[in-house]
Design a protein that fits this description.
By secondary structure, this protein is an alpha+beta fold. It contains four helices and eleven strands, in the order ααβαβββββββαβββ. Strands 1, 2, 3, 4, 5, 6, 7, 8, 9, 10 and 11 form an eleven-stranded antiparallel β-sheet that branches.
Length: 195
């Protein structure tokens, strides 16, 4: 009888008070450092590309911290007129997730989309690493992209600079954005409309 009563109390408590999303200080600091730029756009340039030059080094590169809430950031990455890429950083309760939302110009998903990684450690206030997750490994294998099975994405956020970096064996690519000079925000990324 006592067990039933206690079970009823805990059940009621669980229904009325959802568990808070747990996040550690370094993940919060990193997330908040990007979030403070919400609504702003910044121009960047390729600082490292060991397989370049490429489209990235020839086109205007713009990041736009477009959508922000307490658990997720949407950061479109425009390469010239190509608005197919959006970085999505999410607090998951066990760390931070980075996803690459790739769309076609008609707004439909690209066949290779929503790939990325998840933090495996605390990282640092200004630096987080996102080793490739299992969904992405399966996607890359299915789409004939075995070179991407060991991808690690990194992001750095400092007062003057935001950096996006991709590394794997034999490959390094990095873009640095100047946070000291905001520019006019670009149009919405493909598939997002005016939301």
């Amino acid at each position: 009888m006592i067990a039933v009563a206690l079970f009823g109390v805990s059940q009621s408590h669980a229904v009325t008070k959802p568990a808070p999303l747990v996040s550690i200080p370094t993940h919060n600091a990193f997330f908040d450092a990007i979030k403070q730029h919400c609504g702003k756009a910044f121009e960047g340039e390729v600082s490292v590309d060991n397989q370049g030059p490429s489209t990235f080094s020839r086109e205007k590169l713009v990041m736009h911290v477009r959508m922000c809430n307490d658990t997720q950031l949407h950061i479109p990455f425009h390469v010239g007129d190509n608005a197919s890429r959006t970085w999505i950083i999410t607090k998951t309760g066990s760390g931070l997730s980075l996803k690459h939302d790739h769309r076609k110009s008609d707004g439909h998903y690209d066949p290779v989309t929503m790939y990325g990684g998840h933090t495996l450690d605390a990282g640092f206030d200004h630096i987080q690493s996102f080793p490739v997750d299992e969904y992405s490994r399966q996607l890359f294998a299915q789409k004939g992209l075995p070179q991407s099975l060991t991808n690690i994405w990194q992001m750095y956020i400092y007062p003057d600079t935001f950096s996006y970096r991709l590394i794997r064996e034999g490959r390094e690519f990095r873009v640095d954005f100047d946070l000291t000079s905001p520019i006019a925000p670009p149009p919405p990324p493909w598939g997002y409309g005016d939301d």
